[in-house]
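Hey Z.,

So I finally got round to the iron/sulfur cluster thing we talked about over coffee. Here's the setup:
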Amino acid sequence: MSALATPSPRPPEDRCPGALRAHQAADGLLVRVRLPGGQLRPAQLRVLADLARDESDGALELTSRGNLQLRRLADDAAVRRVADRVAEVGLLPTATHERVRNLLASPLSGRDRAGRLDVRPLVRDLDAALRGAADLASLSGRFLFALDDGRHDVAALGADLCWIGGSQTLWLAGTDTGLRAGPDDVVELLIAAARAFLRVRGERRDLWRLADLPDGPARVTAALGRPTSPVTAPPGTSGGTSAALASAGAAPPGTSGAAPAPVVGARPDGVLVAGVRLGRLTADQAHLLADLAGRDEIIITPWRSLVLDTGGPDIVGRLATAGLLVDPASPWLGVTACTGRPGCASALADVRGDVTEALADAGPTGGAALPVHVVGCERRCGRPAGPVVLAVATGTGYRIEAGGTSRPGTPAAALAVRAERQK
Ligand code: SF4
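And the result:
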């Protein structure tokens, strides 16, 4: 029996929500608005803020893919009203492909000199090509594209297909199989690679991601039938990835050196990065950000922060007063939590409430602290890649896991472990 014929316990279709297909959470309906490259105009953010206030629980949730979601919608009529408004402001350009527009891009691309090129035009081109490819509507809502401008930030976030500017490398599920493309050809290559994935997957619609395919990177590369360049380690192994990264001076995905989030605060280049507590942006905060951004684009990052092309101490002060994170030493930075109670029926605790309580007494971190992730059950949804201090609800408290150790504790104890490891 071939590996592809192995039965899967998964349903054939993934259940990722979209703007048109809501997820029934324990506390109401949840919808997700895809933002390729995290790109958003201030006027669009204002509309989303109003929808959060009028139809949702008053906040926009920032996701780890740079998208936004609204939860606790009352009923199907509310979902339709939200979708209609989202479409009116240009955030729902397709009904058929809306859940497959999962596209990360380096959030500071074109704004500083750390990247090798500005990938923002490529984001728009790739999104348009994806929407124009009727067959790619059958990708799962979990399939992820990434355009990294050469600084190796989004390259570390586990995309199925990731192009790295500068080295012109295409990674398949984190592996360099020798495929190369320049900026002029990368969109065509990404579309072809996604099609090759669908061909290799065949009827197995329960194989949602490239890593779900046994030997996926090598088989998809073979199905593409294109010339490849030599890699310095055998294709399909982590060595291929490590070699590609080493040649670019970066750390492999999932290691402590990977996925550098943009530092919050005002930068000398006039860019401002603001973090969002536990990824929940209130309607008032969203309106403030839209007002301060003026007519410029806003970027939602995969690290639960926003990028604005405007800085200055007065603006930083206003954002801090509004509860946004602009101090790199804030104890809130790097702290994430799953949905927990009441939104998730499996949750054993109100994890966000518990960690918020713990953070109220936490002191500054000194910056660049280990991530802390708090979850409501053993499924550990949203666990960040790489080293992390984990607090897992057990029903009678929490268990703290860090550096291979495990002991009973609380979210406050998880923050203390982080502080201890930073000394
Ligand atoms: S980790 Fe458990 S409680 Fe948290 S969102 Fe996932 S299933 Fe729900």
